[in-house]
TrEMBL record:
PANTHER family: SERINE/THREONINE-PROTEIN KINASE. GO terms for molecular function: ATP binding; protein serine/threonine kinase activity. It comes from the Eukaryota. ATP binds at K188. Pfam families: Pkinase. Gene3D superfamilies: Transferase(Phosphotransferase) domain 1. Belongs to the protein kinase superfamily. This is Death-associated protein kinase 3. It comes from Porphyridium purpureum (Red alga). Residues 159-433 form the Protein kinase domain. Keywords: ATP-binding, Kinase, Nucleotide-binding, Serine/threonine-protein kinase, Transferase.
Length: 447
């Protein structure tokens, strides 16, 4: 295994500098983690559910071998002097799981051939498959249940597919419903080459960030299914029932409502930047509203009745995002033409400040009812106006009822000098946002 970089494993775990850093427990994977031994005398070694420690090596450094189970794949690692080495990986789909809970032993066996006996000793099980030993009956039971789930860990077995919410060249987002809880989610299915040995690097990056961020203003990844054989990944997210912010631009939202929407966007951006993540594609379609009280037949499309701040704003889509220190420079020219920062277009090194320009564009558009600060009939014309530092003035009928404080706020975000542009923290402290949140139709609740 290569050292010095983060690599996505098929089960959703992460290796960094050769050591397992963190594995997240997702809602329906029932993933657990513990020690693995090929010697029954070594059962006294530590065995804990993985959720009880975030750094395996800091608390379990005595373990020689260990296993990680998530998303229907069991990965076995060897703890060596210079780090951790992946020994083997078993896809559980179709496997048999045999258990002796009184002895704390589980065996993972290949599918039986027709007419063949299923009885085996533990030693025979290890030779034919994989044996796991535990010093706790409760932990053994927890692993047993999780392994059984993994043997049929296929997306369609756990979720019902619904209407299409959006689609692109390589991905499609659809409504889905958990077959057991009946709860609704949004599943993003990304396709790549069938039979690939690993997930494409760009998708690895998106999964890495989606798995690591947890904030009320960022859509939560709830479940994950990785199918290398068929070349697709199913990412199950919480369903934001109000649709995209773009659907509300023509609603003539009052300034007080725009203020609360922007405040929540900035809270999400502030969190991302503190987590050393630059979004790089903030735009109206990548901001969702999770309505506090949706109608019974809500189809995910936006409407103009907002109850802020009880309705939550959610940032989505980390396909172009990048892990980067706040003062580190990035070079890739990525983003959406109307929302991209001028320094990115110019091919200059840029920082997280580029995200704040995008927030400025979003704010400008919401306050004006659909206008953009930089106009053009083509991408080339838009870029040319950005390079010439030409912004449409905040004048005319659309701006008559907009406060001076709001205009000043937009101006400080749409600063062509990224060093002079407001940071997320500074924007949240700006006088326009410093006032109390907009009153809701019911008593406001803390975010």
């Amino acid at each position: 295994m290569e050292k010095g970089g983060s690599q996505l494993l098929a089960h959703g775990g992460w290796l960094d500098q050769g050591g397992l850093v963190e594995v997240r427990r997702l809602t329906s994977s029932a993933a657990v983690r513990g020690t693995l031994s090929d010697d029954e005398d070594e059962r006294s070694r530590r065995c804990v559910p993985f959720a009880s420690c975030t750094n395996f090596f800091s608390s379990c450094f005595r373990v020689r071998r260990y296993a990680v189970l998530e998303h229907g794949v069991l990965s076995v690692f060897v703890d060596e002097k210079d780090g951790s080495r992946l020994k083997e990986r078993v896809k559980l789909l179709g496997m048999q799981i045999e258990a002796d809970l009184t002895q704390g032993v589980l065996a993972i066996l290949p599918p039986e051939r027709e007419g063949r006996s299923t009885g085996h000793t533990h030693r025979d099980a290890f030779r034919r498959g994989l044996a796991l030993y535990f010093d706790s009956k409760m932990t053994c039971q927890e692993w047993y249940e999780a392994l059984l789930v993994g043997t049929e860990y296929v997306f369609e077995k756990h979720y019902e597919i619904g209407a299409v919410l959006g689609s692109g060249a390589y991905a499609q987002v659809r409504l889905c419903k958990d077959r057991l809880s009946k709860q609704r989610f949004a599943v993003k299915t990304v396709k790549f080459s069938r039979g690939s040995a690993s997930i494409p690097r760009e998708l690895q990056n998106e999964l890495a960030i989606s798995l690591s961020v947890h904030h009320e203003n960022i859509v939560e990844l709830k479940d994950l299914f990785i199918d290398l054989e068929n070349g697709q990944v199913h990412m199950v997210f919480e369903h934001a029932r109000g649709g995209a912010l773009k659907d509300y631009v023509s609603c003539d939202l009052p300034e007080s409502a725009v203020k609360e929407v922007v405040r929540q966007i900035l809270r999400g951006v502030q969190y991302l930047h503190r987590m050393k993540v630059c979004h790089r594609d903030l735009k109206l379609t990548n901001v969702l509203l999770d309505l506090d009280a949706p109608s019974a037949d809500s189809d995910g499309k936006g409407h103009c009745e907002l109850k802020l701040p009880s309705d939550l704003v959610k940032l989505i889509d980390f396909g172009l995002s990048k892990h980067s220190d706040m003062d580190a420079l990035m070079m890739s020219c990525v983003g959406s033409p109307r929302f991209i920062a001028p320094e990115v277009i110019a091919g200059k090194p840029y920082t997280h400040s580029a995200d704040l320009w995008s927030v400025g564009v979003i704010t400008y558009t919401l306050l004006s009812g659909g206008l953009y600060p930089v106009t053009g009939e083509s991408k080339e014309e838009l870029f040319a106006r950005l390079e010439s530092r030409t912004i449409e003035p905040m004048e005319g009928d659309e701006w008559l009822l907009v406060s001076d404080a709001a205009k000043q706020f937009v101006g400080e975000l749409l600063n062509f000098d990224p060093k002079e542009r407001l940071s997320a923290e500074e924007a949240l402290e700006h006088e326009w946002l410093a006032s109390a949140p907009v009153a809701a139709e019911k008593p406001a609740t803390d975010l």
